[in-house]
Structures are given as C-alpha cells and as structure tokens.
Amino acid sequence: CPYPTSLLHIEELCDSIVRSHRDTSQFRLEELQALRWKLFSREELHAYQSKSVDEMWQHCAVRLTEAVQYVVEFAKRIPGFRGLGQNDQITLLKTGSMEVVLVRMSRCFNTENSTVFFDGKFGSTELFKSLGCGDLMVAVFDFAHSVCALRLTEQQMALFSSLVLINPDRPCLEDRGRVHRMRRDLEVCLSHMLRRDNQESLQHKLYQKVSVLQSLCSLHVEKLHWFSQRYPLIVHSVFPPLYKELFT
Ligand SMILES: CNC(=O)[C@@H]1CCCN1C(=O)c1ccc(Cl)c(COc2cccc3c(C(F)(F)F)cc(C)nc23)c1Cl
After folding, report:
1. pLDDT tens sequence across 196-214
2. Atom of ligand 1 at shortest distance to CA of 67?
3. Which atom in ligand 1 lies closest to the alpha carbon of residue 27?
4. What's the pTM?
5. ipTM of this predicted complex?
C-alpha cells in the first residue's frame, strides 16, 4: 500500500510536538540545572516531616494539579487531539496525564544525590515521609531515576510524552481507530527521530518504560483512593476541581 504518511508530514508533526512540549514544560531545563544543588536544610526537612498526612497530601495535590494542567495544555497542542471527541480527550487525559507528569518529573531529578525538585529546592524521599506512603515515593523516585538514565533529549522526551498520552488501549474510548491512527503517526515520528539521532536502541527501552508507567500509576490511583477514603473532606473540598475531575 502507498506510504500513508509523507515524510514532510512526519517532520512537521515532530516539530509541532517538540514545540508544544517546550512551551508547556512548566520548568526550563536551564532553571533546574541552576538549582540542582539547592538542597533543603535539616530544619526545612524537619518542617516537612512534621506536617500532618492531610496537610502534606494537600500540598502535593496542589502541585500535581498544576503539573496536570500543563500536561492538558501539551495534549491540546498535539495535532489531531482537539479533533477527537470530548469524551475521548477526557479519557486519554484521565488515564495518561499523571503518567506524563511522572515522565516530566525525571527532568527535575538529580541522579547524583537522588533528589527531586519540589517547592523550589531539591529533596530526597525523606521529604515526603509524612505522606505515609513510602512505597509510592520510592517508586516515583526509582522511575524518575530510570528515565533520567536514558538521558533523553527534550525532543525525545516530547515524543515519548505524546506516545504515553495517545494510547489507543485506554478503556472506554469511543473512536479507538482515530486514536490508533494518531498513535501510528507518532510512532513513525519517534523512530524517524531516533534514526536521525542514531539511537534506534532507545526505541524498545522507551516502550518498556510505557508499561512500567501503567503499573506505577495504578499504584498511584490506589493510594489516592486510600487517601480520599481517609480524608474525604480534603479531597472533596480542597483538591482543585481538575484534580478531582481527573483522579477521583
Ligand atoms: C518539579 N516537580 C514536579 O514535577 C512535580 C509534579 C508537579 C509538581 N511536582 C512536585 O512538586 C513534586 C515533585 C516530586 C514529588 Cl515526589 C512530588 C510528590 O509526588 C506525589 C505526592 C503524592 C501523591 C503523588 C501521586 C498520586 F499518588 F497522587 F497519584 C502521583 C505522583 C506522580 N506523585 C505524587 C511532587 Cl508533588
């Protein structure tokens, strides 16, 4: 059959996704590099650790919601996303936005001391002790570390993020075929870019990361559910509406 997607279309698609990622990445790499040795003092660490569970969850939820909003903006700029039905857009974001937040967290991770950028400085898992879910934090840090180890360029990160979002296997999609066609074009983009970067070996590593992400995020949703059971008021009153819409 004729090659359905012209090379020009693929190059344009790559460029627009890289541009969207750059315009919606919340923190510029240069900023994060400049701050990477700004660590929390023992007093600051102690202050976070003495916060109550609900206070710390609330603190994180505000940041995660802000990050999700940047991911929503990124998704809206992926060519074809706005052409999907409203329900399918919500379905893809409901399940994929936290996964992209996780992928993006790797940009804010310092593998030399296993710290992540949070509240303006870099902190270790110790910082999140009062959340009461050490296993989730260890999993979040390990994943960020493993993505960091791939040393993705911003272009590769952009395409990887779009592949995480445009997933035709998500449950209850109405027009699965349309998502599948978008996904196929993005896969052609990624392999085109990796060939150009002479890094084809990265392809299967990235697809492996996608499956790790899905298991990790089901753990997250489970934790979030546990938290909303224990602190229903917080989730229903304080959690910003988008967060509630996407994660409850
Ligand atoms: C540069 N900073 C960042 O990128 C992140 C994302 C947006 C803002 N932000 C942080 O400040 C941040 C950085 C690192 C960490 Cl470990 C955290 C805490 O992360 C979480 C605490 C509670 C629940 C989390 C859940 C759960 F369970 F809700 F799905 C899921 C994810 C993935 N992270 C959770 C946060 Cl909130």
Report:
1. 999 999 999 999 998 888 8
2. 7
3. 1
4. 0.90
5. 0.94
